[in-house]
Write a structure and sequence with these properties.
Blueprint: H1 4-13, H2 20-28, H3 35-46, H4 51-83
């Protein structure tokens, strides 16, 4: 028999009617967001995490992703210049 915690977690994984509006809003704003990320963000908000905290989390993720991308490009340029 599933525990109450497992049951509530399973419920959080399912979008309620109207929650796909979040995905549609992102699409209309020109923001690429896969359905899994959209679902995860809705889950955080449903858990009572403030939108400001979610926003700050997204900023940190974006910053780290940008840093990794810059580092990769720098490494590629260095590698290319050594081969010339």
């Amino acid at each position: 028999m599933p525990s109450a915690t497992n049951k509530s977690f399973e419920t959080m994984n399912e979008l309620r009617p109207g929650q796909d509006d979040f995905q549609q809003l992102a699409d209309l704003a020109g923001i690429y967001m896969d359905k899994e990320l959209s679902r995860d963000l809705v889950q955080l908000l449903n858990m009572g995490i403030s939108p400001e905290v979610v926003f700050n989390l997204l900023k940190v993720i974006r910053k780290k992703k940008t840093e990794r991308s810059k580092s990769r490009r720098s490494t590629q340029r260095t590698s290319l210049s050594k081969h010339k």
